[in-house]
Amino acid sequence: MPALASRLKDVLVSASVAMSVRARELVAQGHPVISLTVGEPDFPTPPHAIEAAHQAALDGKTKYPPQDGLPFLKQAIQRKFRRDNGLDYALDEIMVANGGKQVIMDALLATCDRGDEVLIPTPYWANYADMARLAAATPTFVSCPQNNGFKLRPADLEAAITPRTKWLFLNFPNNPTGAACSRAEMQAIAAVMLRHPHVWILTDDMYEHLVYDGFEFCTIAEVEPRLKNRVLTVNGASKTYAMTGWRVGFAGGPRALIKAMVNMQGQLTSGICTVAQAAAAAALDGPQDLVAERAALYRERRDLVVDMLNDAPGLHCHRPEGAFYVYPDVAGCLGRTSAGGQRIETDADLARALLEEAFVATVPGAAYGMSPYLRISYATDTERLREACRRIQAFCRDLH
Question: CA 20 to 30 Å from 300, out of 6, 31, 196, 212?
Fold first, then answer.
């Protein structure tokens, strides 16, 4: 058999995907698994977005689209950036891609050479590091510890930047912790970046509308306009509008960077599904009250999960500002044995035992670069969340 590419050795199967696969196997065997692994809203896509896609198909809008996105969607994105973020992007400073993931990959492939470094605050969405490696860059990490609310400290950022740093990635509200930066905290990060003009900044704002308790989202190009000419502001329809399967991501950024990214995308996939673009435009321009209503439900779920996990022996759960994840510290469970006889030495051991004995699927913190933690998604219905937390409490009580 001919050899596969050597680059594959650096790209791992996502831990959340692996846990989801194992959970499905157990379900197929008849076990009552509750999966808290996937970062996907459990709400339906807004009806007006579905209708817009249907009408686009009926109208024959099913031909090849422009590589950078259909004009009416780019105009809707332009309005969104102005309305939500106070950012003005010209249409040739905006592009559409197959989800936020492709936006990020386009950016890395368009800018990175071997030896360049991509600076990633930790804990981090695991794909960031793998995508950097695929682009021949080196992921480097800076810790965002729990005692700082899982947020990036300016001094740590400053110490991590080198002459080879090509990108800083920001993701607040964060996957996996739910942590979000206040305006003052983002200004402090921006002050560091003003001193390093050789570094691009990518801000992944997918969870911008999922913030709670009066927290006000901000994005770095809005907070510090002097950085705008080297910031790529990434967003999409997936989390805000429950449109994960439609695969619509977008970005605003400097004209030259966007042009290079569109060129790269043209070699990889070309433009994205036309009817999905129609749905995304309808979601962006349509009624927004649904967004706030769903965020209120997520906040109730967050409080339920945090409170119940903090009642589980050996767990300590930080209450995050946003997203739909919690990231409990599980250090108090390590060095013990489960009721089923499994020795718990790592967060991966704990996640495996929880799945196999309590039939609750979570993701170990090792997958996100910080242990010993679990990532728990509360993007599922309240009763299933309550039952999952009861099982976790019982599992922890039975450790010995």
Answer: 31
For 41-89, how does the pLDDT look when each residue is reduced to its tens digit (9 = 90+)? 999 999 999 999 999 999 999 999 999 999 999 999 999 999 999 999 9
Two tokens, residue 282: 């309808």
Q: 256 near 271, Cβ under 8 Å? A: no
- Four-residue CA torsion sign, 78, 81, 87, 93: negative
Amino acid at 317: C
Question: What is the distance between the alpha carbons of residues 34 and 387, in angstroms, rounded to a whole number?
Answer: 8
| Measured distance CA(95)–CA(244) in Å, rounded | 18
Tokens linked to 25: 């196997």
Predicted pLDDT of residue 19: 80
375: nearest Cα among 16, 107, 3: 16
For 344, residues 6+ apart whose C-beta sits below 8 A from its C-beta are: 333, 334, 335, 336, 337, 338, 350, 353, 399
Q: Which residue has the tokens 């300016």?
A: 154
Distance between CA 280 and CA 161 in Å, rounded?
Answer: 37
Which residue shows structure tokens 């009817």? 275
256, HSE (Cβ side, Cα atoms, 13 Å): 5
Task: Tell me the DSSP string of 52-86.
Answer: HHHHHHHTT--SPPPTT--HHHHHHHHHHHHHHH-
Q: CA–CA distance from 323 to each of 136, 210, 236, 290 (Å)? A: 30, 5, 14, 16
Q: Which fold has domain 47-285?
A: Aspartate Aminotransferase; domain 2 (3.40.640)
- Tokens 């990635």 correspond to 169
Residues of the chain with CATH 3.40.640.10: 47-285
For the full predicted model, state whether its pTM sits above 0.70: yes
The Cα 231–Cα 251 span in angstroms is 10
Please report, as a single letter, which amino acid is at residue 302: R
Question: Which residues belong to CATH 3.90.1150.10 in the chain?
Answer: 6-44+290-397
* Distance linking the first and last C-alpha atoms of the chain: 50
> Which CATH topology does 6-44+290-397 take?
Aspartate Aminotransferase, domain 1 (3.90.1150)
Mean pLDDT of 245-267: 97
Q: How many CA atoms lie within 13 A of 396 on its CB side?
A: 24
How many residues belong to the chain?
400
